[in-house]
Amino acid sequence: MQLAHTCRYRSPGGHDAGVLAADLDCRVCQNGDMRCMVRSTAGRCFVECAECMTGYWNAGDLSVSDTFRTEDQTWTSVSANVDDVTAAGWAPLILGSPA
User: Is 0.70 surpassed by the pTM of this model?
Assistant: First the structure.
């Protein structure tokens, strides 16, 4: 899978405006909006399906990524920002960033 250009910010004023969204397909439900999130206590990034609440640790290849149920976790998460994603080594996933 090509990593470049798989995440983007949703347009201002749209649903979930400001959320770093991934142009990926959830392998569980195949129809959810995928969002880049960060575990607020540990700073670890993951991709979350807004439809079925499946989380993926490996944004580069969801087909091999370990999955988890985000609503079953005892920790909290927030929407990832560019700094979070860059710190996680996912900079090539951000639109407009150098690969």
Answer: yes
